[in-house]
Specification:
It contains 14 helices and 17 strands. With 395 residues, the chain is of the alpha/beta class. It has two domains: 146 residues, Aspartate Aminotransferase, domain 1 (Alpha-Beta Complex); 232 residues, Type I PLP-dependent aspartate aminotransferase-like (Major domain) (Aspartate Aminotransferase, domain 2, 3-Layer(aba) Sandwich). It has a seven-stranded mixed sheet, sandwiched between helices. Helix 4 crosses helix 11, helix 12 packs parallel to helix 14 and helix 13 packs across helix 14. The radius of gyration is 21 Å and the shape is globular. The two termini are 31 Å apart. The chain binds pyridoxal-5'-phosphate. The site of pyridoxal-5'-phosphate (PLP) has 15 residues, from helix 5.
């Protein structure tokens, strides 16, 4: 099929909720993608921070093929090997207590919200609890997750959303404090805001919120759907802050391409929240998805993926900082590890990104004015150099 035909057929039959770039990717290899015309691209988007291991990892592909031939789905009414193994690896990786597997990030947020509300309901028996969320946050598109997403243009057409949500200023502890009431059951935030424009939480802010949560018996929900799984140079971004969440959400790179997410609870939240009958999912954590998770954890360990991100981050940051110094329309660099943003002024980000595709570089946007770089976690120095060359060419 030619690209124009693919575009035409897609646009004829698929509901138009995305303005797609005129490219159809056909296959991938390592950090490179190839479109249906055979053109090569360097991928610094990883399918929106998903494909951490890069494309065509032999061991990953073989594990999934083996699982497909064995069994793909059984439902949550029975036990299976991949779920047991994936659950142990997830829980041990963060020193928490219990995990629930979902099919996406937004579902992980739904589960986290339900767990927090149930925790508070068990605490005081009332059912009008509040959650404090952050402005400029992004937590997903289902109604609960949308309700805690601090972006009014995403929310407006779909009101009424779930009630009891208050929005505080990110990185402003006083603003969080002012929004606390006797009904507050949780504070939810991304450890590093992604879609909103790549804003890392400041150390004192996150530590302060943790302290407020302890003082007021509120649960701290950290959304690591984008910034987790090694992206910031530690397996979980919060591990760099010396705090622990009560509930953590993860998705995107958790299965490195297979649709899977999870929410993880510490002992306190697990012991006093969801019980049989409270929550469920037909597919959630099915053998194919959890085999992917389990394999991803094995390969991260075997290939020292997190150490690699940590080691290469200074080089990536240096190269991006040089770019910012050189080009007036680049106002700043923000980010952590392999989750970086370049702030653009006076030019359209969408245009730069479209140009980059023409020059064989895949990058994406965040917010309205940020070029977002979230490459596969296996990139090397040469890939960074090549990315800089192609990005400059597209300026
Ligand atoms: C992508 C994302 C989500 C939503 O995940 P989906 O799998 O698209 O539902 C939620 N939170 C954050 C921080 C994300 O980056």
């Amino acid at each position: 099929m030619k690209t124009e035909d693919i575009m035409q057929e897609t646009d004829e039959y698929v509901l138009h909720t995305y303005n797609r770039f005129p490219v159809a990717f056909d296959r991938g290899e390592g950090v490179h993608l190839y479109d249906t015309d055979g053109k090569e691209y360097l991928d610094f988007a990883a399918g929106i921070a998903v494909f951490g291991l890069g494309y065509g990892n032999r061991e990953y592909n073989d594990a999934l093929k083996d699982q497909i031939d064995r069994i793909i789905h059984t439902s949550n009414l029975y036990y299976n090997v991949p779920m047991a193994e994936a659950a142990r690896k997830v829980v041990q990786s963060c020193g928490m207590s219990k995990v629930f597997f979902t099919n996406s990030g937004t579902e992980a947020i739904e589960g986290a919200i339900k767990a927090a509300r149930k925790y508070a309901w068990l605490r005081d028996g009332s059912s009008d609890h509040e959650i404090i969320a952050m402005k400029h946050s992004f937590h997903g598109r289902s109604l609960g997750a949308l309700s805690v997403t601090g972006n009014t243009s995403y929310q407006e057409p779909f009101k009424p959303l779930i009630g009891g949500i208050r929005f505080a200023e990110f990185n402003n502890l006083k603003s969080v404090e002012e929004n606390i009431s006797s009904k507050t059951c949780a504070v939810i935030m991304e450890t590093v805001q992604g879609e909103g424009g790549i804003y890392p939480a400041e150390r004192e802010f996150l530590r302060g919120v943790r302290k407020l949560c302890d003082e007021h018996d509120m649960l701290l929900i950290l959304d690591e759907i984008q910034c987790g799984m090694g992206r910031t140079g530690s397996l979980w971004a919060w591990q760099e802050y010396g705090v622990q969440p009560d509930i953590m959400t993860c998705a995107k790179a958790l299965g490195c391409g297979v649709p899977v997410g999870c929410f993880v609870l510490n002992e306190k939240a697990a012991a006093r929240s969801l019980v049989p009958g409270d929550h469920g999912s037909t597919y959630g954590g099915n053998p194919l998805a959890t085999r992917a998770v389990s394999t991803v954890f094995d390969l991260f360990e075997k290939n020292h993926i997190v150490d690699h991100v940590k080691e290469l981050t200074p080089y990536l940051e240096q190269k991006l900082d040089e770019l910012v110094a050189k080009h007036d329309f680049l106002a700043a660099r923000r980010g952590r590890g392999f989750m970086q943003g370049l702030v653009v002024t006076g030019r359209l980000v969408g245009e730069i990104i479209g140009n980059a595709l023409k020059h064989g570089l895949v990058v994406i946007s965040a917010g309205s004015d940020v070029i977002r770089l979230v490459p596969p976690l296996i990139i090397e120095k040469e890939d960074i150099d090549e990315m800089i060359r192609r990005l400059e060419a597209s300026f």
